[in-house]
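User: I'll paste a sequence; please echo it back and then give the predicted structure.

Assistant: Echoing your sequence first, then the prediction.
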Amino acid sequence: PTVQMEDDIILCDNFVEKCESAIARTPNTVIQFFSRRKADLVVGSRMETGSKFLMHQCYYLPAGMASAIHEYSIWYEQYCEDGMTSPNDWVTRDFFKQNRISYFVHIPNLVDHRESVSLIDSRRSSKRQSYTFEP
């Protein structure tokens, strides 16, 4: 099992405790700890289909899944379009979709996206923060 994190995030207070608690409740489920969907405010914590997975800021993968996604990415890289700006997001989403893996969106989010210019694509908005993050 692994918790994947990008380097442009802000952690909530007591992150490790809150993260471990969430994982202990569903250790065999993918858990996303950052989201930017209106459903975060309306529905709250929920299951989503893998085809909706996006935003790699912070998420949990059950045992064995990271290596399976890595193997899939080797194949995927050979067939993806040139010029993709965020291949990790797309690979993970497509892996989940192909393998019918749903994931749990944890509300409130345990991390937030730093307000900054993207190094991947400077045309992206710097205002890509969570609606539910509680420092």
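The radius of gyration is 15 Å. The chain has a mean pLDDT of 87.
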